[in-house]
């Protein structure tokens, strides 16, 4: 187990290096002179030269890459071109809202999607199953922004239950946080619930046909225990895998959702940076999300032995 | 020895009367069970024997109240357990009765236990559900029953997961789980079919021992007449959802009155080897010299491990002869077959096919040789591509070797006739055939290429005994006509005794004994061969002759 963990952690390194090469080339491969892009239309030749010098653009490309990566290792992601604030400070201010939103979304998803999938499998080919499957198709096909606006319209505008926009940190108390975070989390969760409910149903249908389920019935095990103790743990590995793979959906969903609900998180920062062509910030954000994705999936891979003792590393 | 106990004075435990089970919602199709009646007394073992589709498992599931929902349902009849009609019980009452009053063990110990729960916890669960014992009392009771089923090192096994145990140990866990509450009735549905013969013998003895201790009534379901002879007091012979014949074991074996029972008994291959065939000596087509396969695994961090799957296998095989490779699971017999087929590359020795050493040929160099080596696998339900017509499956091989389509189809038609299938089978798909028919198609597919050597890997093990006899006859007939050499891999000594000229007995990758079939099976020299023969169920009985075998 330990040697496998070390191996898996080490295998993350080449992935992140590859990502860093792409991110680095992002700026260099954009048509035209990066310095000209950064400096904007009004720049004088002297200003351009100063920027080139400051960015090290006159050095060989490999040297540029190495010094860039070296900077990142020391926590230096460069400086935002718009606000002149170090990128690291900019990003770290925005991390907490997004992370707390993502965690809340995950919680909602797991609490709703897994029971939905279990019930759909248990009541296979009945109205309960069809209801869950219809919701699943809907969740997949309706765009996130539409879900967001519909939820806003119903729960904020019409019913007035929740404030329409804004963010309160969790440190300011759970209820104020939930008050503003619940609608964005539900928005974000819609597609994720659809995906995981569907996967749970498929995995459970397989497991419910297994011999050991019949054995459990022959022992006199009741239906609830049968589903949630005997079957669900056996179905857990594919479900966990899809939770990890679906994390990419969450990342892209965050961008849209934070914009709709005006949450000062990573997603909003991404939109702002892209619109302003703030390249150092964009680079840092891509590295961050790629790293997060790899990290989440690493954790999930390493969690398999908890669900299934036959998986040994 | 036959058990054949007379228990007519013992109280009745299970009484089934006119039980009719039908396909749910389909009243026009004939029912799956057409009104069967039998009973079992305290301490008695009744065997339901029949071939696949006869309704024996449906009978057991109906008794447990576990018929698959939405597929099968009881139309009429009674199932009385200690006088109470189980069919009149609510779902809740049935749930309470399971494990407590009636329990069941299943065929596949490999899949019947929950793989993510420790086996101790799985037995404890029965007590959780049905008793109010304290945690320590439960543990003590579970340890006690685990000792009763003769599990070694009980404390360790209690905390083991199913995959850490052998098949025999898992079946012991199943039996412990079924009997911990001392139910009046134990239903055993083919409990030893998936086990090796030596393990089977132990499990049968264990069931008999616990039955004697607890006075359990046992409903034992099997297709294996040998097992029936070992364990039954009385027998019910089933076919197509009906009980054709029922009676004490001795009566059924000695004087079966129904034609089907007679045919069934006649189809059981005898353990007495057939007379050795005298054939014109021909130079061997296949020679294995010091053949071996060792699997090596290891990682950068972990230590290297070696598994010697087969070691120092030597034989030669002449055209028209059959070599049997006999052994239990894990003996390496399939590894040998796969090495010869060059599905894997052996790590030692030579394989001379028609004079050429094929042991280490590359994929490309092997291709022209492949035609000469064909295989028939165990499971006819998985060895034919379900989306291909029979014509496509049969002609694929010849087309690969450049035979024109017309010629390949003509050959396919000819072979279908030989394997007794109609010509229009060509247009159909595998699911439209029974297991026996599919295995005959698989054999036709193998001989399409006119191979020199046919490898049959447990080719009749999944088949009913009467179908098994037909397939064995077919192989013998093909061999007589074409002079093909056959390597017959089997765990079943009865089959080996009837078809093989030479036999090679393997254990844990080593060949322990080898020689003419008549000699090895009649006068075994190695202890392991003797143990195998000793464990063959019903070895004291000659089923076809309906008499005990004189030792």
Automatic annotation (TrEMBL), chain A:
Keyword Electron transport belongs to the record: no
UniProt GO cellular component terms: plasma membrane
CDD domains attached to this UniProt entry: TM_PBP2
Keyword Zinc attached: no
Compartments reported by the entry: Cell membrane
Lineage of the species this protein comes from: Bacteria, Pseudomonadati, Pseudomonadota, Alphaproteobacteria, Rhodobacterales
Entries under Gene3D superfamilies matching the protein: MetI-like
Protein name, UniProt field: Peptide/nickel transport system permease protein
Source organism (scientific name): Paracoccus laeviglucosivorans
InterPro entries membership: BPD_transp_1_N, MetI-like, MetI-like_sf
Membrane topology: Multi-pass membrane protein
Spans through the membrane: 9-27, 99-122, 134-157, 177-197, 235-261, 281-307
Primary location class: membrane
Domain ABC transmembrane type-1: 95-300
Family: Belongs to the binding-protein-dependent transport system permease family.
GO terms of biological process kind: transmembrane transport
This protein's UniProt keywords: Cell membrane, Membrane, Transmembrane, Transmembrane helix, Transport
PROSITE patterns: ABC_TM1
Automatic annotation (TrEMBL), chain B:
GO cellular component, one term: plasma membrane
Keywords tagged on the record: ATP-binding, Cell membrane, Membrane, Nucleotide-binding, Transport
Ranges for domain ABC transporter: 14-265, 295-533
Xref: SMART domains: AAA (SM00382)
GO biological process: peptide transport; transmembrane transport
Membrane topology: Peripheral membrane protein
Pfam families: ABC_tran (PF00005), oligo_HPY (PF08352)
MF GO annotations: ATP binding; ATP hydrolysis activity
Subcellular location as annotated: Cell inner membrane
First-listed, main subcellular location of the protein, grouped into a coarse class: membrane
Domain of life: Bacteria
Family assignment from sequence similarity: Belongs to the ABC transporter superfamily.
Name listed for the protein in its UniProt record: Peptide/nickel transport system ATP-binding protein
Phylogenetic placement of the source organism: Bacteria, Pseudomonadati, Pseudomonadota, Alphaproteobacteria, Rhodobacterales
């Amino acid at each position: 187990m330990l040697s496998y963990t070390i191996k898996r952690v080490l295998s993350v390194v080449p992935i992140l290096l590859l990502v860093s090469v792409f991110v680095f080339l992002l700026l260099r491969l954009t048509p035209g002179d990066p310095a000209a892009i950064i400096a904007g239309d009004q720049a004088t030749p002297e200003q351009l030269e100063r920027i080139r010098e400051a960015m090290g653009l006159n050095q060989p490309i490999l040297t540029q890459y190495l010094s860039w990566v070296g900077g990142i290792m020391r926590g230096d992601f460069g400086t935002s071109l718009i606000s002149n604030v170090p990128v690291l400070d900019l990003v770290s201010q925005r991390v907490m809202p997004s992370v707390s939103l993502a965690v809340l979304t995950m919680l909602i998803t797991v609490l709703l999607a897994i029971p939905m999938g279990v019930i759909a499998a248990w009541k296979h080919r009945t109205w309960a199953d069809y209801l869950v499957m219809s919701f699943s198709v809907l969740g997949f096909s309706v765009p996130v922004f539409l879900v967001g606006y519909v939820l806003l319209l119903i729960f904020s505008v019409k019913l007035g239950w929740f404030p329409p926009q804004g963010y309160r940190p969790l440190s300011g108390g759970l209820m104020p946080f939930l008050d503003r975070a619940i609608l964005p989390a539900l928005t974000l969760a819609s597609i994720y619930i659809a995906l995981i409910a569907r996967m749970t149903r498929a995995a459970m249908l397989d497991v419910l046909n297994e011999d050991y389920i019949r054995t459990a019935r022959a022992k006199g095990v009741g239906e609830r225990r049968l589903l949630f103790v005997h079957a669900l743990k056996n179905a857990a590995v594919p479900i966990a895998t899809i939770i990890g793979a679906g994390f990419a959906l969450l990342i892209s969903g965050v961008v849209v959702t934070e914009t709709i609900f005006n949450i000062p998180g990573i997603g909003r920062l991404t939109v702002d940076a892209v619109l302003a062509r703030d390249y150092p910030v964009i680079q840092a954000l891509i590295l961050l999300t790629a790293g997060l994705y790899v990290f989440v999936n690493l954790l999930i891979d390493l969690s398999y032995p908890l669900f299934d003792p036959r998986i040994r590393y | 020895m036959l058990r054949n106990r007379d228990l007519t004075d013992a109280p009745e435990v299970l009484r089934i009367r006119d039980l009719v089970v039908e396909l749910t919602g389909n009243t026009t199709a004939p029912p799956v069970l057409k009104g069967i009646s039998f009973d079992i007394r305290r301490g008695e073992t009744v065997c339901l024997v029949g071939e696949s589709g006869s309704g024996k498992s449906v009978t057991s599931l109906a008794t447990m109240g576990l018929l698959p929902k939405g597929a099968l349902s009881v139309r009429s009849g009674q199932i009385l357990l200690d006088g109470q009609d189980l069919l009149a019980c609510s779902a809740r009452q049935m749930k309470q009765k399971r494990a407590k009053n009636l329990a069941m063990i299943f065929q596949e110990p490999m899949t019947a236990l929950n793989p993510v729960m420790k086996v101790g916890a799985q037995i404890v669960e029965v007590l959780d559900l049905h008793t109010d014992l304290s945690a320590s009392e439960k543990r003590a009771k579970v340890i006690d029953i685990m000792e009763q089923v003769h599990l070694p090192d009980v404390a360790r096994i209690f905390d083991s997961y199913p995959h850490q145990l052998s098949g025999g140990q898992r079946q012991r866990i199943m039996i412990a789980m079924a009997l911990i509450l001392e139910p009046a009735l134990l239903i055993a549905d083919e409990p030893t079919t998936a086990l090796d013969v030596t393990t089977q013998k132990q499990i049968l003895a264990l069931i008999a021992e616990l039955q004697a201790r607890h006075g359990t009534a046992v409903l034992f379901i099997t297709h294996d007449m040998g097992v029936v002879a070992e364990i039954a007091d009385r027998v019910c012979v089933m076919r197509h959802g009906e009980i054709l014949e029922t009676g004490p074991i001795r009566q059924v074996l000695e004087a079966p009155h129904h034609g089907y029972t007679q045919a069934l008994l006649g189809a059981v291959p005898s353990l007495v080897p057939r007379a050795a065939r005298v054939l014109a000596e021909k130079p061997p087509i296949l020679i294995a010299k010091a053949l071996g396969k060792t699997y090596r695994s290891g990682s950068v961090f972990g230590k290297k491990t070696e598994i010697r799957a087969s070691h120092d296998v030597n034989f030669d095989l002449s055209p028209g002869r059959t070599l049997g490779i006999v052994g239990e699971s894990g003996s390496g017999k399939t590894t040998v077959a796969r090495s010869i087929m060059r599905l894997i590359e052996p790590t030692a020795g030579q394989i001379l096919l028609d004079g050429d050493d094929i042991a280490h040929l590359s994929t490309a160099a092997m291709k022209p040789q492949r035609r000469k080596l064909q295989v028939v696998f165990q499971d006819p339900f998985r060895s034919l591509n379900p989306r291909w017509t029979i014509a496509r499956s049969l002609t694929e091989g010849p087309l690969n070797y450049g035979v024109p389509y017309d010629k390949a189809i003509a050959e396919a038609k000819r072979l279908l006739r030989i394997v007794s299938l109609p010509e229009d089978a060509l247009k159909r798909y595998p699911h439209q055939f029974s297991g026996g028919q599919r295995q005959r198609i698989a054999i036709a597919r193998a001989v399409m290429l006119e191979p020199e050597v046919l490898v049959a890997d447990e080719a009749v093990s999944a088949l009913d005994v009467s179908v098994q006899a037909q397939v064995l006859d077919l192989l013998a007939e093909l061999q007589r006509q074409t002079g093909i050499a056959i390597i017959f891999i089997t765990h079943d000594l009865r089959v080996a005794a009837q078809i093989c000229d030479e036999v090679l007995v393997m254990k844990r990758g080593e060949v322990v004994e080898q020689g003419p079939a008549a000699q090895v099976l009649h006068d075994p020299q190695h202890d392991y061969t003797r143990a195998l023969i000793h464990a063959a169920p019903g070895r004291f009985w000659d089923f076809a002759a309906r008499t005990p075998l004189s030792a």
